[in-house]
Amino acid sequence: MISTATPAKDRYFYGLNTGLAIAYGLANLGAILFVPLLIHLNVAGFGKYWALLVSPAALTSNGFWALQHEAIHNLFAPAPTANRRAGRIMAILFGSSFRILRFAHLTHHRFNRHPLDRPDCFDPTRNSAAAAFCYFFAEILGGLYLIEVLCPLLCWLPRSLVLCLIDRIYAKDDPQLNRLRLLAHQSVGSPRAIAEIRQDAFVVVLLYGAAVWLWGSMWWVLLAFVLCRGFLVSFLDNVYHFRTPVDEPDFAYNLQTPATFRLLILNMNFHRVHHNHMQLPWWHLPAQFAQNNEVFDANYGLAALAQLRGPATIGMLTSGKYTR
User: pLDDT band at residue 318, thresholds of 50, 70 and 90?
Assistant: First the structure.
């Protein structure tokens, strides 16, 4: 419940967050379960044309992710419990677990540009350019979302194996990765965390298993929906950090974009502002942008397309040497 002490503007936007969560939740649940029922029942004689209703849910995937992002930062609602509940429900509809998404994103903020958080660059003394390009494009073309979906399923393994996987993921001899390994043991490797992630994964499997059964011979529509979501989320996830200097972890791009798209992604184009003021909800970012006399670094669409250039060598991405 929103306190009357909360400023009127904030009360309005917290209410808007709730409305958006309901809208996105129903849209995604509809794409997964309700649309195939409309098709089977041949409601209004539209038959297979009902499948077109899946498109809006797929194309607004980045908006749905942006709302989950607010919950991750405890900015979806004024009460932490409401944030957690909403975030967990949205993550399940998204096909993942809130604990996994929250850990990955918050460590991105705390350890931005750590060795596992910079797919856009590589060390030519350790990796070939071909391997780096394959890894980079696999990640931005859907691999990132695939990881977010698979990680909760891996937590069904015995806890000892889960901890071994965490140790292998953060095995490189790097101070940041050593700290990340300890945090991962606490945040996603504790008995309580694993139990919660397993519960979320069970609901996800149940939900999408039912979806596959309901879609039947039109299973490819459901697959197209998930692939579209995976591509959009993965392709735009790192656009704010593509080829930014690795020795400036607090740096991120502010990207100029049309107002309609800016509202869809809840002002995440003000990304440097967000990184420097994580405590601010999305509706306060434009004012902070103006107050800081910030500038836009590039056009959002052009910055997204620039990723097709692929990764750069790490030597190109040190302060004073990197190019966008």
Answer: confident
Domain-located, residue 270: yes
- What is the count of structural domains for the chain? 1
Q: Is residue 2 part of a domain?
A: no
Q: Examine the pLDDT at 322 and tell me if it is beyond 50.
A: no
The predicted-structure confidence for 115-131, as pLDDT tens digits, reads as follows: 899 999 999 998 999 99
Among residues 276, 284, 234, 235, the alpha carbon closest in space to that of 254 is found at: 276
Is the CB of residue 220 less than 8 Å from the CB of residue 291?
no
Provide the residue count of the chain. Answer: 324
Residue that has been written with the tokens 């292998």 in this structure: 168
> Helices 191-215 & 98-110, crossing angle to 10 degrees?
120
Helix (H) or strand (E) holding 173: none
pLDDT digits (tens, 9 = 90+) for 184-197: 999 999 999 999 99
**Does the residue 186 lie in any domain?**
yes
Contacts of 182 (CB under 8 A, 6+ apart): none
First and final C-alpha spacing in the chain: 45
Domain extent, residue 143, equals: 8-317
